[in-house]
From TrEMBL:
The lineage of its organism: unclassified sequences, metagenomes, ecological metagenomes. PANTHER family: OUTER MEMBRANE CATION EFFLUX PROTEIN (PTHR30203), PROTEIN CYAE (PTHR30203:SF29). This is Transcriptional regulator, Fis family. GO terms for molecular function: efflux transmembrane transporter activity. It comes from mine drainage metagenome. Gene3D superfamilies: Outer membrane efflux proteins (OEP).
Length: 423
């Protein structure tokens, strides 16, 4: 089922997360909806997007002027003694306040702010692609666990059918032994086959419980609660092939729209922009500065009393900052940024290879599974007919128990039979 199918069937996608098991068979889109709603990794990825958005805001804040205000309340006491001239001694105490307002604005910095903002934009884009990848991963994981639970349920049904068939063969063998037309070894062999079928049923039940529990955890439910009931597959499931196009088209689409590749590409571009920002940070920058201050500190002179005063200062200037030497700190920062850019470049190549490998494996796996499904149905149908005929022949006494057990093994020994019964 694709995303459009999920949306079209899910009429209640806007509801809050449900933390209790549904009282009806769960459909695939419901399992995916609840998983996406409760998965902590998706919420973590969304929080990462918000973090990067805030960091982009910080980078863009560098274009704005910085305005600061300061307010001081002071108490001052000054005493001085002039040797031999006591008339010039002073002992003055005063209280005054100082107010200041300053503005600083970077007018030109050779592109450092632009590169930093571009790096932040690419990191935000990468986080959004990472969110898409996280959503797809959670969706795929839930879909696989849902299918595994369906297969386990079908396997349990098949194991129960096999156990019933083995019980029927055992009943036939015991009846023939009781009537003296078969050796006790027939009953013992049939009993052994039944014991093996019962053990297989127990194992299948454990596999089913494990798969159902994993799906419940994906949906944010308690796996120890009542087992989930799944919507059974439709009767015609798997009987019609789906045109999937060419492998070349899949590879081209993956290179273009796969979020893992796009996230790696954005991170690489962000690293390149960061390297440019680090380089430009070592270049001169031009600032506009303005400062206004006012204070009420009294004025006095040697041997004179203090007098109330109100002083004001207004300063406007252009400042050119030229970095000369910083202990090679800028050089090492530049080397670090360049190495990070190379690292992200290789990460992009690795992401492409991983996605290509996944597309190739999925494409070939689908073709193999589609071709195998029809053959499995044919083999299973023939094996079931052979088993029914062997049981009838053995009941009539025209064959041995070995033929029955062999036919029974042909039904139960097919590794794909369990899911074929459901599909």
């Amino acid at each position: 089922m694709d995303a459009s199918g999920v949306t079209s069937q899910g009429q209640n996608l806007g509801e809050p997360c449900r933390l209790r098991a549904p009282d009806h068979p769960v459909r695939l889109f419901e399992a995916i909806r609840d998983a996406l709603c409760t998965d902590p990794k998706t919420r973590q990825a969304w929080a990462a997007v918000q973090v990067q958005a805030a960091q982009l805001g910080q980078a863009r804040a560098a274009y704005w002027p910085k305005l600061d205000a300061a307010l001081q309340f002071n108490r001052d006491h000054a005493a001085s003694t002039v040797t031999g001239q006591p008339q010039f001694d002073s002992n003055v105490g005063s209280q005054f306040r100082t107010q200041a307002l300053s503005l600083s604005w970077v007018l030109y910095d050779f592109g450092a702010r632009t590169a930093a903002a571009h790096s932040a934009e690419q990191l935000l884009l990468a986080s959004r692609y990472s969110l898409d990848d996280t959503l797809q991963t959670a969706l795929l994981k839930t879909a696989k666990n849902y299918e595994a639970a369906l297969a386990a349920s079908a396997g349990l049904d098949a194991a129960r059918d096999n156990a019933r068939t083995a019980q029927e063969s055992l009943d036939i063998a015991q009846a023939r032994v009781q009537h003296g037309v078969a050796a006790i070894s027939d009953a013992l062999q049939a009993q052994t086959a039944y014991a093996q079928a019962a053990a297989d049923e127990t194992h299948a039940k454990g596999t089913w419980q494990t798969a159902i529990g994993a799906l419940a955890i994906d949906m944010g439910l308690d796996p120890e609660a009542a087992p989930l009931q799944l919507q059974p597959l439709p009767a015609d499931a798997g009987k019609s092939s789906v045109a999937i196009g060419s492998l070349h088209a899949f590879l081209d689409d993956a290179k273009r729209i796969n979020p893992k590749i796009n996230a790696a590409r954005a991170q690489h571009l962000a690293a390149l922009a960061h390297a440019k920002a680090v380089r430009d940070a070592g270049l001169p920058s031009l600032h506009f500065t303005w400062k206004y201050s006012r204070n009420t500190q009294p004025v006095t002179g040697l041997g004179l009393p203090s007098f109330p005063a109100d002083a004001q200062d207004n300063f406007v200037g252009i400042e050119l900052d030229i970095p000369l030497f910083d202990g090679f700190d800028q050089d090492w920062k530049m080397r670090e940024a360049q190495a990070q850019a190379r690292e992200q470049g290789q990460a992009l190549i690795d992401a492409r290879r991983q996605v290509m490998h996944g597309v190739w494996s999925g494409f070939e796996g689908y073709k193999t599974a589609t071709a195998d499904l029809g053959s499995t149905r044919t083999v299973l149908a023939v094996a079931q007919q052979s088993l029914a005929a062997a049981q009838k022949r053995y009941q009539l006494g025209v064959t041995s128990i070995l033929e029955v057990l062999h036919a029974q093994q042909a039904v139960t020994g097919n590794p794909s039979a369990s899911f074929s019964r459901a599909a």
